[in-house]
Amino acid sequence: MKNISLLISLLFVSAFYFSCQNTTSSKYQCPMKCEGEKIYDKPGTCPVCKMDLEKMDKKTADGTNNNSASKVTIIGAMKNVMHKGELFATINLDTIRNKQHLYGIGPVEYLTGEILILDGKAYKAEAATDTSVKMTETFNLKAPFFGYANIESWNEKTIPDSVSTIKQLEDFLDKATKDYPRPYFFKLDATVDNATVHIVNLPAGTKVSSPEDARQGSRKYTVTNKKVEILGFFSTEHKSIFTHHDTFVHIHLITDDKSKMGHLDELKITKGTAKLYLPKL
């Protein structure tokens, strides 16, 4: 009888031990990856998008499935700016300036300009006049939402001449990268027949509760027959978080002479000039 009692006790202790082990070893992450690769030790909700955290499989939680393309960090959320009027900074770019081979895009805090980081160089574009842009190379910047990644090397991918507009580029990326880890940043070097960018230029003190409010003061600029560099973000899971509700891409364009930069609205690529680059896995 004593042996049976001892056996039952041992089984109970063993079950309790393994239960605790399974509980403490579980990892959770936002399904939208609002905070990039941030991992939590217990269930809960994402502080950014408020969705329930998802339990990660062991390989992902251990980092064995990670690669350079998937290490995208998203700080803040576009919808918090557009619909809640949270225009204040959620990131100071000085805190990431020492990261190697840094790339990133986003708006300046209080929607007073656009930001682009290319291989460790940060550019700020401000609307100076209806036709001119004030360009500054600086890391003394803050943003209400921002996306970035450290990309050491890129692979060139063939892009057909039929891809000329933003929508055509988005559709091509979606079809061509079905087996590619998402989200990811991409680069495009090209000459453009025409392109239109905008720079947010919200008047000081403006209250924002809708995208229409956020666009107040925004200025558009045309780029014609120029060489440009494009840095874009692609994701099918970040609508209203880091892309607008009707697209999978968020793209910034800068001219080769660094005279203009902004959020890309319209695009017509000159045939035979485009070179597309994806992060090397």
Q: The biggest beta sheet, please?
A: 6 strands, antiparallel
Could you tell me the number of beta strands?
16
Order of strands, main sheet, comes to 3-10-5-6-7-8
Number of domains: 2
- The first-level CATH class of the largest domain is given as Alpha Beta
Estimate the strand proportion.
25-35%
Q: Total helix count?
A: 5
Folded structure, characterized:
This protein has five helices and 16 strands. With 281 residues, the protein is an alpha+beta fold. It has two domains: 28-55, no CATH class; 72-279, 60s Ribosomal Protein L30, Chain: A (2-Layer Sandwich). The relative contact order is 0.17.
Index terms:
alpha+beta; 281 residues; 60s Ribosomal Protein L30, Chain: A; six-stranded antiparallel sheet; single chain
Question: Which helices and strands, and how do they pair?
Answer:
Elements: H1 2-25, E1 28-29, E2 54-55, H2 58-62, E3 72-75, H3 78-84, E4 91-92, E5 102-107, E6 114-118, E7 121-127, E8 133-137, E9 142-143, E10 146-150, E11 154-157, H4 166-176, E12 184-199, H5 211-214, E13 219-234, E14 249-255, E15 261-269, E16 275-279
Antiparallel strand pairs: 1-2, 3-10, 4-9, 5-6, 5-10, 6-7, 7-8, 11-16, 12-13, 12-15, 12-16, 13-14, 14-15
